[in-house]
Amino acid sequence: MNYVYKSVVIGLGRDQRPNGFAAILFESASDAENAMNAKNGEYIGNRYVDLSVITYEDYSRFNGPPTGNYGGQPGSYVKLSKYVNPENQEKCLLMRGCPYKIEAKDVVTFFDGFGTINQEDVFIEESNGRRTGSVLVIFESKEIAQDAKAAMNKKVIGDDTRYVELHDCNDLFMKKVCQLFDDEKPTYGGKEEEMKE
Q1: In this structure, what CATH number is given to the domain that contains residue 129?
Q2: Is the confidence at residue 80, as pLDDT, over 70?
Q3: Domain for residue 36, yes or no?
Q4: Quick one: DSSP state of residue 78?
Q5: pLDDT of residue 194
Q6: Distance CA 138, CA 166 (A)
Q7: Which domain holds residue 157?
């Protein structure tokens, strides 16, 4: 049963106190089913737990801002647009479909042989404390980035069975995620965006 590292969410009531519910994300629906069948009715301390499988959509909204006047307690946000600018955008690749438990060191290993990449060159996107599967990598040059894209696009990373897609600044997906729009006011993670956070 492969669960996603740091994916546990403790349920909070409207008074922001724990309400007895919790959620955890697994790598696949079958892993979630197996965990439910194996652990349902078992005890945590002196209390038994009742388990059920929920959809990823429900998990992504779990403990988020509810409807009405009661605000949720947001987690951390890592916006990749903060790290892309006109000077470095051609040296960047955006990885799509990464495992949610991915770490910067895994990305460094994945691109071994394509110049020097440090963990400080890797940025993992998070939304409300949850990883989205998108990762930004900054290479030493445009040429190295393009070589890496040509060689590693749709390759499997680590022990995961899913392949990752690689996008550069000319691809619509990276333009959307990193806000690389050709208009009069391009947003490259400037002061206006930081104030909104």
Answers
A1: 3.30.70.330
A2: yes
A3: yes
A4: B
A5: 39
A6: 12
A7: 80-196
